[in-house]
Design a protein that fits this description.
single chain; about 375 residues; alpha/beta; D-Maltodextrin-Binding Protein, domain 2; about 15% strand; globular; membrane; lipoprotein; transport; Lipoprotein; cell inner membrane
């Protein structure tokens, strides 16, 4: 379906709004769940052994979402600890990807798990200097859930109040693209138009839905399943919009300067990521429990078993960065006039992944042509 054009939005205006919203959310919710504190490598499930690598501490960013379960499980079960040996890992959590990019640019995070839209924006805004994608992590795990008393069909979304996690984040762009494909017009910055788009911390979204202030939300897991437990209905699974139901939800990115200075550390983190994904595939029940335990550690509250199980079912964990789908998402954003270009040449450096897969005896992954 041909996309209806939206009003042209200067990139600087979008970025300024994104920064302002990031600051506001950080004041509201501490920039995500959990505590941003260094922990010894051995404190995350396995004793630190061997000499330190080329840094004392590696700072790792991720979101408290099940779509980031590679990081959740990797920390909880000690995969990072084993590969990093005597180097400590300092985990830091965020509400959404744009805040991770700000931290990466500021030098307060070295390696991170983020969604495609923040990776694309960060790369293009910096002229290719902000980050490199070094591995895949997850596909799927994003759903559009609604109040069934107010929205009974896709057509009834028009005129309603819908939440996404943050201005410019992956789900925000996905919703804007989907709405535009239906011919609806929404200002990408203000969120006003044929649908009222509300950008909010996922925890705030749950409370707002419960109070009746929202009609629906396009959100990652486990937020979608939490809302379903509150009475929401899944109106659309984003996987249904993609060929083969595969699309990149989470990638592993690294600061290029950190990659150049500390390739041993990046290799160790990517090996741990591959090991975590392998273990998740072999032990899905234990992996789900480990991810839930880590989320409880971050949020102070356990997910009900039914919510955790429902959320887990829609996610596929993969080392493949699914490069063609990233390029498609970049074209979506450019068509929405959120980007001036969709040229992602040079965004990937799959050397660490190639070495990790070879070490694990797994087949290589290539950056496929668009």
């Amino acid at each position: 379906m041909r996309l209806a054009p939206l009003p042209s939005v200067p990139l600087t205006r979008l970025l300024a709004a994104a920064v302002a919203l990031t600051v506001a959310l950080s004041l509201l919710a501490g920039c995500g769940y959990g505590k941003n504190r260094p922990v010894a490598a051995g404190a995350a499930g396995a004793p630190a052994r061997g000499p330190k690598l080329s840094v004392d501490t590696v700072r790792v960013g991720y979101l408290p979402n099940l779509t980031h379960a590679t990081a959740l499980v990797g920390l909880e079960r000690g995969f990072f600890a084993r590969e990093l040996k005597g180097t400590a890992v300092a985990p830091r959590t965020f509400n959404a990807g744009p805040a991770v990019i700000e931290a990466l640019n500021a030098g307060s995070v070295d390696i991170a798990w983020i969604g495609p839209s923040p990776a694309i924006n960060g790369y293009l805004r910096s002229g290719g200097n902000a980050l490199r994608i070094v591995a895949g992590s997850a596909s799927g795990g994003v759903r559009f859930v609604v109040n069934p008393d107010r929205i009974r069909s896709l057509n009834e979304v028009k005129g309603k109040r819908i939440a996404t996690p943050q201005l410019g984040n992956t789900q925000d762009v996905a919703f804007l693209h989907w709405a535009a494909s239906r011919g609806w017009k929404i200002d990408p910055v203000t969120g006003r138009g044929d649908v009222s788009l509300v950008r909010a911390d996922n925890r705030v979204t749950v409370d707002a839905f419960r109070s009746g202030s929202l009609d629906g939300a396009w959100v990652p897991e486990p937020t979608a399943s939490i809302l379903a437990a509150e009475g929401a209905r899944v109106l659309l699974d984003e996987a249904d919009l993609w060929p083969g139901r595969r699309f990149v939800t989470t990638n592993v990115v690294v600061s290029p300067s950190f990659l150049a200075k500390h390739p041993d550390v990046v290799d160790a983190v990517v090996r741990a990521s591959v090991a975590a994904n392998t273990w998740i595939a072999a032990h899905p029940g234990e992996a789900r429990t480990a991810a839930g335990a880590h989320l409880k550690r971050l949020t102070g509250k356990a997910l009900p078993a039914a919510v955790l199980g429902a959320a887990w079912q829609g996610i596929t964990f993969t080392n493949d960065p699914l490069a063609p789908t990233l390029r498609t998402q970049a074209r979506h954003a450019a068509r929405l006039r959120l980007l001036e270009s969709s040229d992602l040449t040079g965004i990937y450096d799959l050397g660490p992944l190639t070495r990790a897969l070879r070490s694990a005896g797994l087949p290589p992954v290539t950056e496929d042509a668009p």
